[in-house]
Amino acid sequence: MASFKCPDVVNNPGGWGPCTLPEQFKDIPYQPFSKADRLGRAADFTNSAYMGRRDRYASQFGAGGDIFAYYEENDESSFQLVDTSKAPKTFRKKTWQNRNLQRIRRDERRMGGTMQMLSRGGVRDRDRQRQERKLQKRWAGRRRWTDRTPVKVRDPSVEVQSSWKPMEELETGKFSKLSAKVDKPEDLLLCGSVQYYDKTWDRINTKSEKPLHPVDRTHHNVTTTDDPHIRKYSQSIKGANVFATDTILSQLMASSRSVYSWDIVVHRVQDKLFFDKRDDNDADLLTVNETAQELPQEEGDHYNSPERLSLEATYLNQMFGQRCLKKQTKDLPEPNPFSASSEEEEGQAASVAYRYRKWNLGDGLTLVCRCTHDAVLQDAKHKDKFINVKTLNEWNPKSGVDWRQKLDVQRGAVLATELKNNGCKLAKWTLESILAGSAALKLGYVTRNAPNDPQHHVVLGVQQFKPTEIAKQINLNLENAWGETVMVFVVCGGRFFFFFFFLSCVCCAGVLQHFVKMLMKMPEGKYVILKDPMKPLVRIYSVPRGTFEDDDDEDDDSEEDDEDDDDEEEDDEGAEAAPAAVTEAAAGRTVTSL
User: Cβ(252)–Cβ(246) under 8 Å?
Assistant: First the structure.
């Protein structure tokens, strides 16, 4: 059986611990320590794991470990190295600087003694300049990680007030998961006056460029609640509960591709929704390079600032849309509802046809939308077809593909670059053409006479697409929702071009239906849909009814409404006024014109 022997225990009545020091521990210095010190390796002679950093095992008491340091008794100051031979040269990898130096020396040997000394500096300077030019060509259009420009903070389209109540916050990246099927639309009305497209513009190329001269026309960008026909349909059509314009719907449907901030005002009146826009809203202005990797960075009144480029693009889009038309006019069953009634301004309205259409969105939702056609085109069978005419403008040839050099021989490359840099704008144009039922979409390529001259422009070419074809190229689908890699196959001038790029397909009907259902669940009132300027987020705010309205304007509008009550009753017989909550600020608005 194992025995247990109790060790000797020394009693210390005055404290704790041993009373006397054992013999084996005498004459040993004391090393201070702390309980907070980390216990790591028992012996680390290299400390390579923490080289260049603070020792993680350092004591709290500082350099107290010198007590146990080892010192050599013999003096090492008299020690000398016996081997005095030179160390062998290490092999250096030849760089372009070494090759450049060797080339200079080789040229000097060829030139000889006196000439060598006189021309050494000139050869070096000439060779250095040649090398710099080579490097500039090699790195042209590229940026190093050290040349990163600071991210420009963009302002929202409208300032959020303290009285606004946030209701919902949506991520635009999740819109691709939405899906909805919509039946074919029903045409309600076709009105306005349009001109025929001149086919001679299709034969323009870079060698026969044509200057773009301004045209004196008035463009009416009337919002939803200012439209007299929409007011009438809101009361006469049973079941119609969603009202908007093609510009507002395209902005909402293409929200997942937008980068800049935008806002839409929504009026919820009983069981009806009116998608509207503010008077000073920039929704009618076109963006430039919105989806490019490098956005325009100029600020202020510079002609290449985002604000100036937007005004320039909008101006060119309107001017080219009117300049490429014939004088022949096609009158529609009803006149333009927004044209001026005075004889002085008669005939100055821009060529436009308005088509009012109705869609059944399902779940008891019926949409009434005002769509737009820009011109009429006669096909080979002499049948009139409505088309839309839009303009792509080049403002900096060095930022991408030079149109004057590539448009005729590589038009597919130019189009692919525009799809990458202006994907949101092209998506909205395609959606507007599909909503209106246009047979074709004409794209005009307009550039500046000089890169620093934003006042004078020339037309380099015109290209025609079917809206459904260009929708497939940019992966824009009205029903299904998925994201995949798209291969765009373009035939241009007998050559074939393939372009691979990634674009998220957006279910446009699903996005619209999602917003409508969400707003229908909210109480009656006024709401603002605002896109965040820096993040892919869309927020919905509940705002007071008097937001975006001036008291002075309301007083003036009320006086004008009293004077024009008799005229409105004669013009709109049987049409009732829209709800007061929607039309309280709509009656006296002035149509915007650029």
Answer: no
